[in-house]
Amino acid sequence: MKRTKMLVLGAAVCMFVSGMLLAEEGAKQGDSKAPGGKGPREIKTDCPECQGIVDQIKSKREELNVLMEKAKPMHEAEKAKRDAEKQAKLDELKQKDPKKYEEVIAKKEEKKKEMEEKKEEKKEGKDGEKREGRKGGKERPKMSPEQMEKMKTENPELYKIMTERDAKQKELQTLREQLKECEKKNKKK
């Protein structure tokens, strides 16, 4: 009786330790910049003719990542500037008209709660199930021409980076289309 208890306990400890080790290994493999811890997206192709296009896509992605890293501090600086301006306006309003200031703050809090609720609804699917990733291949919203013109005058460096980014994204899209055509052509063979 004691031996079986010891064996069962030993087996449970072994399973627990091996589970912990596997969890650590899985966490190491999942570390990446990609959302969901899935790792960088890999493009797999068996076609040797298509491999050149795949390599070009990978290099364009790297170029895009470098550009976005350059733009990140500029975006953060602009956001900090906008936030400071908003806060200055709120402070001024607080001194001039405290009642209106309270109304503005209440509206701001209400809007924040509303946005969080919408965010939660988006996270859950129609049946209350958790969604995985973006659906329908939706693109990120692009800047309007007015916003681009404003950026051109206020922050020419960021404007240059954003136009380069747009050009590289278009090149990347054409490369993806070429890859699809190449794979279709080679499947027919």
Walkthrough of the structure:
The chain has 189 residues and is an all-alpha fold. It has five helices and no strands. Helix 2 runs antiparallel to helix 3 and helix 4 (145-154) packs across helix 5. Mean pLDDT is 80; it is low at 28-32.
User: Which parts are unreliable, with pLDDT below 50 for 5 consecutive residues or more?
Assistant: 28-32
Count of DSSP strands: 0
Structural class: mainly alpha
Average pLDDT level = 80
- The SSE order reads HHHHH
Helix content: over 70%
Shape: flat
Radius of gyration over C-alpha positions, nearest whole angstrom = 26 Å
Beta-strand content bin: under 5%
Q: State the helix count.
A: 5
What about the largest sheet? none
N-to-C CA distance: 67 Å
List the topology elements.
Layout: H1 2-30, H2 48-96, H3 98-123, H4 145-154, H5 156-188
Helix pairs in contact: 2-3, 2-5, 4-5
From the structure above, extract its key features.
189 residues; mainly alpha; 0% strand; flat
Put the structure in a nutshell.
The chain has five helices and no strands. The protein is an all-alpha fold and 189 residues long.
